[in-house]
Amino acid sequence: MLALLRRLFRRNRPGVPDQATNASAGDSLMRTPAVAGTTTNDVIDVRVAEPHAPVGNVIAANGSETKYNAEAAWTRSLDEAIALQQSLPDARESPDATQLLRLLASGPEAVIRQLPAAAREALTICDDPTLPRAQLARKLEQDPALLQGLLRTANSAAMSSGRGTILSIDQALDRIGVAGARAVVLASCVDGLLSHPGGEYNAMAADVWAHMVRTAPLARALAPAFAADPDEAFAIALLHDVGKLVIFDRISVLRAARRRPVVIPAAFVHQLLQLLHEPIGALAAERWGMGDRASSAIGTHHRRDHATRRDVLAETICVAERADHAARRNEPLDIDTLWRAGQLTGSPARASSVLQRLAAAA
Question: Model-level pTM greater than 0.85?
Answer without folding.
Answer: no
